[in-house]
Structures are given as C-alpha cells and as structure tokens.
C-alpha cells in the first residue's frame, strides 16, 4: 500500500512523541497487568498456611453462625461466604466494605482448623495481589483528585496517547507491511530491535486496541456518563435505581438454602463466593460471584448475581455472563476482553504473554527512538554524541521500567521473609516496592542508562531469591513452602523471569558504543 | 515523490490535536446520542445506556487519530466543526420530536 511521504513524516513524528510521553506509564501498567492475570495465585502464594482455614460443611457453618455472631457482632451486618464444593469458610471485617483497597483492615475468618473443629483466625491479610492490581491501574502514582485516583487518570491520558501511537504505528507500517511482516533481520542491531518492535506490535494489534479503548473508558467513565446525561438524555434518568424490595422480617435464610438458590439461578456456573451486605436494613443484598470458563464474564474472575438474603429471590442477573439482554451482554463482553476472563487458563496465559510483549514494545520503542534520532542528526559521516536530554530520557526509561520490575521482586522477597514478623505485611510490600523503584530511578539518573546491566542482574538475583526462599522453608527456616499448585507455579514463573532478566543483561553487554545513551 | 507545497500536510500539532479532541468528542457524543434515541430499542431499552457510553470512546479516538490527515489545522477545525454542528443539529431535531414525534 502506497502512502505519500509527507503523510508518513507527520505520523512518524506523532508516533514518536506519543510513544515517548506514554511509554513509561504504559510499561508499568502492562507489566503489572500481566502479573494481575494470576491474582488468586498471588494471593494464595502470599498467604501463610496459618491464615488459611479449611472449608466447613455448609450446614455446620450455618449452625455455628448464631454463636459466632454473638461473639463477633460485625457478622450481623456483613460477611462473605467463600464456597468450595459443599463447604465454605466465612470471612468478615469491621466497618470495611468500601470500594478502595484497604491495606490495614483486619479480617476474620471462620472455618475448620487443623484439628477438624470450628476455628476463627484473624489477621491483616496479605494484599499482594490487590497491590499488584493497584500498580497495574495507577502505575504506582499515589494521590487523589477529588474521588478519583490520580494514577488512574494519568493512565487514562496515557491510553489516549497509546491509541494515537497504535494508529500512527499502523500507518507507518502499511507501506512495507508485507515485506516487514514476520521479518526479523539481524543485519544490524537496530534493524533487529525495530523488526522485533514491529512484529510484537502488529501481531497483538487487536489486543492493544481493546486495552487502549477500555482503559480510556475505565478512567473517564464519569466524564462520559456525565456528558451523555447532559447532552443526550437531558432530564431523563439514565439509571433506574430499583426501589428497595419490601420484605417482611430481617432474618436471612439459612446459608445452605441461599447457596442452593444461587446455584439454581445460574445452572452450569460455579458459585465462588457470596458477599452479604446491609443485613438487617432495607438495603440488604447478596452479591454472588459466579464463574464458568465457557462464558464471557463481567469481572476479572467471574460475573455477578444479586439475591435478596431474606426472601432468597434473585434480584439481578444483568452481570451474569450471557444472562442479560443484548446490550448488557455486549457490554459484559467488552469488560471480558480487557480482563481476559473467558476461555479459562489458556486465555489467562495468553494475556500474560501479550501483556509482557506490550511492555517490551514500549521499552524498545523509547530506546529505539533515542538511538535512531542520533543517526538522523548525522553530519559528515560521524555520529554526534548523545546530548543531555536524550541521555536523561534513556535513563528515565530504563530506571522506571526496570525499577517497577525490581520493586515487585523486592516486595515479594521481603514479604515472604517478613510475614509473621511485622504487624502489617502490606506496609512492607509498599515500602520495599517504592525503595527499590526509587533507588533504580536515582541510580539511572546519576550513572546513566548504562547501569541497566547491573540493574537487570540485581533484579534477576532478587527474583531468584524468591523460589529459593520457598525451597529453604522446607527445612523449617524462614517462610513456608509452596504446597499448592498455584503457589508452585508462581515460584516457577518467577524463576523463569529471573533467567530472562539475566539473558537481557547478557544481550546488553554487547551494546556499548562509547558515545551512545548506553555509555 | 514530489508533492507541491500546496498539498503537503502542515503538522499544526496544537490546532489539529484540539480539533480532534474537542470536535471529535462533540461528534462522537452526538453520534452516540443519535444511536441512543433512534437506534434499536430507543431511549428506554434496559442496559443500553452502558453500550451508548462505550461507543463514544472508539469514535472519538478514531477521529482524533485521523485528524492529522487534514492539510492544515484550520481545515480540521472547519470540517470537524461543521460535522459537529450537523450531528448535534440532527440530535436536537430528534430530541424535539423530529422522528414520528
């Protein structure tokens, strides 16, 4: 396909500028997003066995509820039933239940103890998975603007730039698409990285379009709904808030009965958990998370069914996969495409790889530009030395991108060793993430992007320490061994990650032109 | 390939970007509004408001990313402004009983 040179030049500049300005934030979003595909596994991996009770038969749990409620009054207002087969554990907190992540809230859990009797444990639970998710959504940028998180808004702006980068990148590639597609030339180092950047970008293009559009909507849906209200719907309410159902009495039905009703409402689905809220008030409700790998689902780990705890009646199936009307189903499908919550474990791994590839595209994009820019400034056959701003940009890119990886590795390692020795492990995660991240950024800004080799090796060693910690613990020292499939896989993936980081370090050993940003 | 200066794209980054952001948003919102009013199910179809909200962004972004194809920023404003007026005018007509009202 032929595109005029002057058009290509405009879109080349556009691609460069939006890439440079959004690449760093997007790298962190994609890296942490890839990890967040396995949130349940991360939770399992980071929760010590002492805080995990075995599920108790439902009828028995129901029979112990009045006694538990007398001892823990919070149970009279809200709790969550975590189902597993015919049994369940019960968890609750005091006050809690807001939408924002609460990292210092204490949580209680009731279930079967090691002795096979009812046991209650209380802890400030590890929120590693939720913190990774928060890193994914905010790039680790703290603070609020009104009721919105600043990082989410920054990510939304980055996603707009990212959409522009996608379209401009596609336009740039169109004239040579057939020739360049699947080409991975090793003629020169730059050619190789450009080919790799193009190949990864074009093969995952539809994925990137979906992610970019959904992130913009997630960040700005208040603005979009507000404009729709004032510009289109006028005085007509957009959302009909259902009147609270009048139900006689306040006692909720027995747990086995409610579980049976939820299961009957969505045949073929697993009912994973049921969150009871507002008990004893007119706003009492149950939100049941239901999942089935054969269906698209609204949330990251399933769809949602609403029931009334007193009458047991189903109040909404709009967020149950494919149980809504056409509009609801299409919207649920869009959510699904962002979360990769369809097709089970195969899609989870596919999204994991696509997420890491995306991070790779942003990283290589920034660094490619810095070196090619120098070639364009070439006069009389000699390359000019990289100037200060290019060095600064390279250092910032390397420092923040590798810093976020090092931060997560440090948090996981520190968390595994310090669980049980500190009151709130989540503070350890946060502190160790930001210390490693800032150290990496500072180190790069002071010594230049060339310290990437050192950073990559250090991060690889930190990551290597994580599975080793699990291994050591089998001898009773330090933490606890990985006993479930999920936590073994977490350790193995971290091990593979360490190997890849080491390999990257060896690759960049070869790239040492004295006057480049790598010097 | 030589392109005479008349037809060459002028970058006009700021004016084109603003035309795409503002004009593009007004057009996208208007199109979503038209779809809300006269699209299948009309204004009252349950859950449709969420769908309507979702279609704004792809339309908006498409306009924003192609706005740089206009030769100058001035032409971008002229065209997008014109289309925005047209779409919003249509929406106003529909809202005030233009179709079967």
What's this entry about, in short?
The complex is a heterodimer of chains A (519) and B (101). Chain A is of the alpha+beta class and 519 residues long.
Characterise the protein shown here.
The complex is a heterodimer of chains A (about 525) and B (about 100). In chain A, a hairpin with a 7-residue loop joins strand 8 (about 270-275) and strand 9. Chain A is built from 15 helices and 11 strands. Helices cover about 55% and strands about 10% of the residues of chain A. In chain A, strands 1, 2, 3, 4, 5, 8, 9, 10 and 11 form a 9-stranded antiparallel sheet that branches. The longest helix of chain A is centred in the last third of the chain and has 33 residues, at about 345-375. Chain A has helices at about 5-35, 40-45, 60-70, 130-140, 150-175, 175-180, 190-205, 205-235, 255-265, 325-340, 345-375, 390-420, 425-445, 450-475, 485-510; strands spanning about 55, 80-85, 85-95, 105-110, 120-125, 145, 150, 270-275, 285-290, 305, 315-320. By secondary structure, chain A is α+β, with helices and mostly antiparallel strands. Chain A starts with a helix and ends in a 10-residue tail after the last helix. Chain B has helices spanning about 15-40, 50-65, 75-95. The longest helix of chain B is centred in the first third of the chain and has 26 residues, at about 15-40. The termini of chain B are far apart. Chain B has about 100 residues and is mainly alpha-helical. The interface between A and B is large, with 39 and 36 residues.
